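Researcher: Here's my situation. A collaborator sent me these components and asked whether they could plausibly form a single complex. I don't have experimental data yet, so a predicted model of the whole assembly would be a useful starting point for our discussion.
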Amino acid sequence: MVEEALIRLSGIHRRYVAGETTVHALRDVDVAVKPGELVAVLGPSGSGKSTLLLVAGGLERPDSGTVTVAGVELGKLSAKKLFRHRRRNIGFVFQNYNLVKTLTVLENVMLPAELDGVNRREAAAQARAALVAVDLSGLEDRFPDQLSGGQQQRVAISRALSGGRKVLLADEPTGALDSATAAEVLQFLRKQVDDGAAGMVVTHDAAVAQWADRRIDLLDGALVEKPGAAR
Ligand SMILES: Nc1ncnc2c1ncn2[C@@H]1O[C@H](COP(=O)(O)OP(=O)(O)OP(=O)(O)O)[C@@H](O)[C@H]1O
Ligand SMILES: [Mg+2]
């Protein structure tokens, strides 16, 4: 059986024009990620890793090529429909957690469901269940500042996947963590993907890439083809 990819990027080009110079941030990039698959994205600084994630998540539009996420081609959606598709299907995790500092742990995890119009009681129940699943129950009423970096990142990952989102895009999610805490977060990420999500994780760190099913390498915006690598 051929399983449908949850993330499919085909022939992606993305340029940034700044005055006289044009940066080719992505050049003819193809990537497909299936449910249960975690793909590590590596490459030097400036090679296009973050741009790739932003394009995959519909936060940047490509200049050419198509992006299909959870069966929907993003380029065909109006801004409003894109926003909704993104919120329902795509979770982002950033290096610096991006938790809302003025909201408690519970409120942070509830936020996407609430934005989606789920009533507060239902959203709280879902969020409590998500926090039990990530072994953070008991911390619901703390604020992000009162958690360790690894705990904050686990909150961010559970928020990203709350409400049944299946696409997880993480940009250097362990960059701010020591190696033991990073391993704990990666194990958690791995488990979420094993449960059926499709994940892309950007990293500078080959150790992080070992948690992935495969890696792709970018150089100057283009995929580096590994000799003999299966595609
Ligand atoms: N908004 C922008 N305007 C102009 N150029 C940009 C913009 N965003 C990114 N770039 C350029 O596009 C290229 C790719 O950037 P990108 O952020 O994707 O790299 P990266 O691989 O994530 O780097 P790092 O490892 O440092 O995070 C770089 O040359 C960068 O300067
Ligand atoms: Mg980056």
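Model: Some features of this prediction you could bring to your collaborator: Strands lie at 7-18, 21-33, 38-42, 64-69, 72-73, 90-94, 167-171, 198-202, 214-219, 222-223. The pocket of adenosine-5'-triphosphate (ligand 1) is lined by residues 16, 18, 23, 25, 43, 45-51 (CB under 6 Å).
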